[in-house]
Amino acid sequence: MKLLIIEDETELRRMMAEALRDAGYVVETVKTYADADEKLHLYEYDCILLDLMLPDGNGLDLLKMLSARGSASRVIITSAKDSVEDKVEGLDLGADDYLPKPFHLAELVARVRSLIRRSGVGTHSIQVGNVSLNPDDRSAAVEGKTLNLLHKEYHILYYFMTRPGRVVDKQVLAEAVWGDNADQSDNFSFLYQQVANLKRKLKEAKASIAIQAVYGFGYKLVEEA
């Protein structure tokens, strides 16, 4: 799951990112309206944490842009502007939740987790074939037997299992699992190695699913007969 934090307070931005990364999310951060606008035009996010009072613009204008584009990103407003008018306008523009400052980091993580579950992207358990994932503790199993995966291997498998049968561009997969800086790499050797390791572990565990390469494009998850 990839998140974007739009927050101009340096220490709060750092603490939010650290808490959400510890919870297992891929997190990108920006501190200005201009940087947020650029990110949102270049990349897709599962959830956006949006401060309204940015030094160079109003976060509500970013919401308007996302709404006009028909973006599927979930949005939680995290702002010190706790007026009823701001809250109502933000929700009317498409925000999914409103968390006024100051807030506890544990509540922030819980709100994100709950929102992603309600969106249908994250659930208590994901099952494809004989493989199951539990996003709450980031565990995987084949027919109930634990599948030991490294951190990135789990996130790759999660990405595919929430999109079974869909062809996934290797660039999109890299950005979803490693963050937006993945597009600065000259090659995808880091991705190929992790996918190869995951494919081997699935085969050794006699999983009924497999990750197939789609020549010239990326990969897709299939159920084997």
Automatic annotation (TrEMBL):
The keyword Calcium is annotated on this UniProt entry: no
Keyword set includes Transcription regulation: yes
InterPro entries tied to this protein: CheY-like_superfamily, OmpR/PhoB-type_DNA-bd, Sig_transdc_resp-reg_C-effctor, Sig_transdc_resp-reg_receiver, WalR-like, WH-like_DNA-bd_sf
GO term, biological process aspect, one: regulation of DNA-templated transcription
A GO CC term attached to the entry: protein-DNA complex
Stretches assigned to the Response regulatory domain: 2-116
GO molecular function, one term: phosphorelay response regulator activity
Sites of 4-aspartylphosphate modification: D51
CDD domains registered for this protein in UniProt: REC_OmpR_PmrA-like, trans_reg_C
Keywords: DNA-binding, Phosphoprotein, Transcription, Transcription regulation, Two-component regulatory system
DNA-binding region as annotated in the record: 123-223
Pfam families referenced in this protein's UniProt entry, alphabetically: Response_reg (PF00072), Trans_reg_C (PF00486)
Xref: Gene3D superfamilies: 3.40.50.2300, 6.10.250.690, Winged helix-like DNA-binding domain superfamily/Winged helix DNA-binding domain (1.10.10.10)
All copies of domain OmpR/PhoB-type, residue ranges: 123-223
Annotated protein name in UniProt: Response regulator transcription factor
